[in-house]
Amino acid sequence: xxxxxxxxxxxxxxxxxxxxxxxxxxxxxxxxxxxxxxxxxxxxxxxxxxxxxxxxxxxxxxxxxxxxxxxxxxxxxxxxxxxxxxxxxxxxxxxxxxxxxxxxxxxxxxxxxxxxxxxxxxxxxxxxxxxxxxxxxxxxxxxxxxxxxxxxxxxxxxxxxxxxxxxxxxxxxxxxxxxxxxxxxxxxxxxxxxxxxxxxxxxxxxxxxxxxxxxxxxxxxxxxxxxxxxxxxxxxxxxx
Length: 240
Known about the structure:
The chain has 240 residues and is an alpha/beta fold. It has a single domain (4-226), classed as P-loop containing nucleotide triphosphate hydrolases (Rossmann fold, 3-Layer(aba) Sandwich). Helix content is 29%, strand content 23%. A 6-stranded mixed beta sheet has the order 6-7-8-3-9-10, sandwiched between helices. Strands 2-1-4-5 form a 4-stranded antiparallel beta sheet, covered by helices on one side. Helix 3 (95-106) packs parallel to helix 5 (133-145). The protein is globular, with a radius of gyration of 17 Å. The two termini are 34 Å apart. Residues 4-232 form the ABC transporter domain. Probably part of an ABC transporter complex. Responsible for energy coupling to the transport system. Keywords: ATP-binding, Cell membrane, Membrane, Nucleotide-binding, Translocase, Transport. Pfam families: ABC_tran.
């Protein structure tokens, strides 16, 4: 069974105050939602758990491996990390080459089903930089997750998606859950995730530099408001 174990972790940037400190938890397969206000440290925590950023202290183990003590090539085979800005990681001239890149660099086999679920075939010859925001997000997700890692970290993945794009990504998340993956999704708009019936939540309370956890049903509007997060039912300009 896939597991993530976080031990006595403090995150932030050298020389500054920790965004969250002394946290510890274990995640098992299923969908977990990392919630917090804009600027609360969601992306920083996710990047630290993926091994992209170093912790101020503590450690993160994924399937028994300290993610900060392995080469990036090996970390990429364990964890698929999708950036909040879909254009951030594009480096190739075509969508097809972009999607193939991670397989070539890690030596892992590409799983065509994931690509098929996310990317329309007519986009393959296009430059990834010419895509709309929603198209780019789906290509970015496919380009990272195409090697079917056991752990998926998705930073604000439902941004810029219309209803069709939302359903495509929601179906992919459900596929991953059924395959026993650990999926962590960040959001500051909780209502976007309700229909996916997440297993649990992690809520960054930046004012107290702490992390709250619980089952999804325990994430009430009162808890959200206390942490400065938009409660359910409040209009936020979503295209869904």
